[in-house]
Amino acid sequence: MSASSHDPVLAVDIGGTSLRLSLINLEGLLIGDIARYDVPFAGDGAADVGGILAIMAEHVERARQIVSGELKIGVSLCGNVDLASGDAILAPNLHWRNLPFGKLVSRRFQLPVCVATDVRQAVLAEAVWGVGVNERNFAWATVGTGYGGYLFLNGRLYGGANGFAGNFGHTTYDEINGHRCGCGRRGCFETFVAGPAIARAGQAAHEAGESAILSSLTSEDKVSTRAVFRAIELGDPVAAKIVDDAIRLICINLGGVVNLLDIKLIVMGGGVTKAAPWIVERIQSDIRAYLMTVEAQRDLQVVRESTANAALWGAAAHVFAAEGLLHGAKLEEGLEHRVIRAF
Length: 343
Prior knowledge:
The structure is a single chain. The strands form 3 sheets. The chain has a 5-stranded mixed sheet with strand order 3-2-1-4-8, with helices on both faces. Strand 10 and strand 11 (156-158) form a beta hairpin. Helix 1 crosses helix 2 (101-109), helix 5 packs across helix 7 and helix 7 (225-233) crosses helix 8 (237-261). It has helices at residues 49-64, 101-109, 118-129, 190-193, 195-207, 212-216, 225-233, 237-261, 271-275, 278-286, 294-299, 310-322; strands at residues 9-14, 18-24, 30-38, 73-77, 80-81, 88-91, 96-99, 113-117, 138-143, 147-153, 156-158, 265-269, 301-304. It has 12 helices and 13 strands. The chain is α/β, with parallel strands linked by helices. It folds into 2 domains: 3-118 and 308-322, ATPase, nucleotide binding domain (Nucleotidyltransferase, domain 5), CATH 3.30.420.40; 131-304, 2-Layer Sandwich (Nucleotidyltransferase, domain 5), CATH 3.30.420.
């Protein structure tokens, strides 16, 4: 094994609203700081690929000066991604469909790349370096711009037939009265519990004149997710009910995952859980009402992610795993795992 095999990876996490980058080494340690940017969007409402690559360029050049061998890039992307090609099949919050993002990155920088959905990367990070190291079965759930998850079953990542397993945020809760989802359907759980759903409920309360506190926190007559949580801190019962309703639906949804798979651990991340860390504790407590067995009620643990951003760490872990540098076979079974070289 050459010295360059241990070079850090440039990890990139592209979420629905924010983009983060950092160098992460084989031990899961940061090299430097995490850089954060807003995801640039084009006039048509889709995330601007050129703008994202321009943000990455500065960090790629800086990283090239640090590594001793060939720099590799690991990408975490908020949407369904084809592991082999790195194509973004469907990224609802970025408004991308069938975009060859992995190849675009590889060609732009003339470097090898790994790309996968953010929830998958987060599970991998927890299995390699985090709370899931000694677990054979657990789930990841994220509450942020979107709501979804991924699975780690029988000691491996579980992607299902097409690599898209774990999309429990896109199971239907109310297709009649629910809102249109970014996936194209109506009434997905995501449209009731994610950050934009919380903001939308706050906006409705403001426009109905139901909360003076929420109305006082508006910016240009718009209620943000952050404003709803700030209103709760100020004792607003309307804002508290909005988030209580979201927590109840998350518990129903995740309770179904536990009842289906009989898992004992759920790890949670995402911007909403960072803005209000107490949400995870609430879910840990309230989910018991929706669990079928006494054993699940007794044993299930719902915990926060082990790092500042598990999906970012997982983007690096993906590259190390594809290169065969990690101990243990934790990747999806039956797939060829390799970096993408489109140059």
